[in-house]
Design goal:
Blueprint lengths: L2 H14 L2 H11 L14 H15 L3 H20 L1 H5 L5 H18 L7 E8 L2 E7 L6 H14 L5 E6 L8 E6 L1
Antiparallel strand pairs: 1-2, 2-4, 3-4
Helix pairs in contact: 1-2, 1-3, 1-4, 2-3, 3-4, 4-7
The structure holds protoporphyrin IX containing FE.
Amino acid sequence: MYGIVNKAIQSLITEQFGEEEWIAVKEKSGVDVDFFLANEPYDDAITYKLAGAASEVLGISVGEVLQAFGEYWVLKTAKEKYGGLMEAGGNNLKEFLINLPLFHNRIMLMYPKLTPPEFKVSDITENSVQLHYFSKREGLQEFVRGLLSGLAKMYQAEVSIELLQSRDNGSPHEIFKVSW
Ligand code: HEM
């Protein structure tokens, strides 16, 4: 994944837990990179190692690390660095989710070596949608849950996020029902 992802993990831990905790996470992860460059692609293993080490150092599950990271990504990284792009995503949560399948097409213009997630939306009602998440990567469903709750906060919406299907249970992809 591009360095911007690892940099954001670093910022999240430094801001919310402290510089020393970040140093401990970095050490525990065994990741031997001094500075992450945002526009440089890195091996996915680095990101997974950082998430695993954060779980151990902070005493929370990997799922909780990924969830916190998803929220941080939307509310801090994306908002601060790509505010215009986020605002163009929709006037409310429902619009943003309906537009989400096309979102990373624009990101790919900036990060040409991106391996993006794929999203589809179905069962659109007045107060809910089902979001289908397809990924070449494993184990990121709690990251998606965090992204969704970050988006809800961004739009000041109260949501419930229900995982209807998961690869963990033999389904081909994840389906989240987001209701507000
Ligand atoms: C301006 C905002 C955003 C930027 C710059 C961005 C950029 C990226 C980057 C660089 C990656 C790493 C993939 C790689 O390097 O190959 C990524 C992955 C991902 N993004 Fe985004 N993204 C943004 C917003 C979003 C939003 C709003 C969502 C969903 C709600 C989202 C969902 C994901 C997911 C789930 C992944 C993990 C990749 C996978 O499953 O394979 N992103 N994005």
